[in-house]
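stuck on this:

***
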Amino acid sequence: MTVPNLTSLPFPLEPEGAPPCAFETSGGSLRLTGQAGTDLFLDPAGGGTPPDAGRLVGVPPQGDFSLAARVRVEFASVFDAGVLLVHAAEDRWAKLCFEYSPQKTPTAVSVVTRGTSDDANAFEVSGDTLWLRVTRSGRAWAFHASTDGRWWRLLRYFSLHEHEHEHEHEHEAAPGRTTVGFLAQSPTGQGCTAWFEDVTFTLSAPADLRDGS
């Protein structure tokens, strides 16, 4: 399936995962609908079948970059979310989510998976829109969220590599297979639609990941 390019991205997007997602692109915006029961989460408690979800991802240029979008979600069921995704391997990925909490409140959430997933709720949001940003800075990744698209809160600063020797090896290989992109998930619901608007991509990282810039 061919994905029309987002004009703001310097790399093409390709569909991955199952069941496949439905999507529409227009200029620098993307509308993505995930099917029922879709998720990417490896429960640290174990058990169950590893989940999957249709998504649109691509290989970014080497070096530092920031990918940001204004995310709007049609929330209906718990854990429905619009997601910016970093995917390095079958058991290593990270999600920056605008998600519907069990308290029925839109929430900024992050998940980092290295064999198993963690789950970190950051802050609640009034309304159905939140700005999300993924940054690669050197060998590290950073997740930011913003309620106004101007002042950014740092949610996570992390690596997707477990050991230093692996880290060194993967640093050379990562640009060829680590992908970034977009996901709409609906683990407990009948599907979820998310809009990713004002998508921007810059070949740089903030000089200070913690000062709100």
Summary: Residues 163-176 have pLDDT under 50 and may be disordered. The first helix runs from residue 164 to 177. The domain at 14-44+51-198 is CATH 2.60.120.200 (Jelly Rolls). The two ends are 37 Å apart (CA to CA).
